[in-house]
């Protein structure tokens, strides 16, 4: 019996490495030959080092031009015909659309992982958005496919769009390596909070800066670390000049790209995320594994990891005053931080470990390969 081939379609190589590597490793251990179709920038060697087969394609992330879409669909379809995979895993909205169109008529079982619903539902009305909202439920209704979501809110959105409940599978995130990210003691010195992620408007970075300014005006601002870079392909990207200006303000340090994320949490007492919507934020999962108390929005995706009164303080989206109050409270209460930190680590180990997520994903892969028309929704009841 030949080894089944599994193809990941991801628009960017860095996203595969940062968000899909645990799944792909679990699939390889389970006996799949793993192929990766992506735009290759700096992470090609890392993908090859895992023993995966890499197929570079110039995918235009963020582009809504029809000619770019058609070129991508044609390139991916040619690869599907050549690779002849047993299963495809389409990652994020653009990957789902390109991969589904490319697989038309090929009877290819597929996992359609919808990790970018926020970009659609937070964006303004446009012809491209209307077309996507018309097309997406039709692609997700195809036989031999499963729609993979990371939180209950995104599952509810798909149901509202008319996607059959039997095709929706909920698996919480991509998993976090709890052996690599170990609990860290709180650092000495002044209380420090950190945001890790892309520098986007939708991530609430401006709300975070406004909250810090409010605290600074009151004379109680903790140190703030910003770890991440702008994303020019995303319309919500914050200009580098604006980030540089923020770094000139007292108490704010912009670190740019950080390869060793644990080094950020080693410097910080509190993890903060002011996002408007997430799938399941990897930055909070990694902070949880490192044993960090959290402050986050009561928003889809965020609330699954940052649980109010359990391991976090939460606040309404875009509410800088409420965020400032939460920062002030948690920065001034070391005992509460310690309690939250211990619960964060427990949640990472019990609910969000890469090992657990890997088992759920491989189970889904195997079911789709064995009975493409039937999905028993492993993980559908997960939080």
Report on the architecture of this protein.
- Residues 6-131 form the Glycosyltransferase subfamily 4-like N-terminal domain.
- The chain has 383 residues and is an alpha/beta fold.
- The protein folds into two domains: 5-175 and 354-370, Rossmann fold (3-Layer(aba) Sandwich); 192-350, Glycogen Phosphorylase B (Rossmann fold, 3-Layer(aba) Sandwich).
- It has 15 helices and 13 strands.
- The protein has a seven-stranded parallel sheet with strand order 3-2-1-4-5-6-7, with helices on both faces. The chain has a six-stranded parallel sheet with strand order 10-9-8-11-12-13, with helices on both faces.
- Strand 8 (192-196), helix 8 (205-217) and strand 9 (223-227) form a beta-alpha-beta unit.
- Helix 3 (66-83) crosses helix 4 and helix 8 crosses helix 13.
- The protein starts with a strand and ends in a 13-residue tail after the last helix.
- The model is unreliable at 377-383 (pLDDT under 50).
Topology, element by element:
Elements: E1 5-12, H1 13-29, E2 33-39, H2 44-49, E3 53-56, H3 66-83, E4 87-91, H4 92-102, E5 110-113, H5 117-122, H6 127-140, E6 145-149, H7 152-160, E7 168-170, E8 192-196, H8 205-217, E9 223-227, H9 240-247, E10 252-256, H10 261-267, E11 270-273, H11 282-289, E12 293-297, H12 302-305, E13 312-315, H13 320-331, H14 334-350, H15 354-370
Parallel strand pairs: 1-2, 1-4, 2-3, 4-5, 5-6, 6-7, 8-9, 8-11, 9-10, 11-12, 12-13
Helix pairs in contact: 1-15, 3-4, 8-13, 11-14
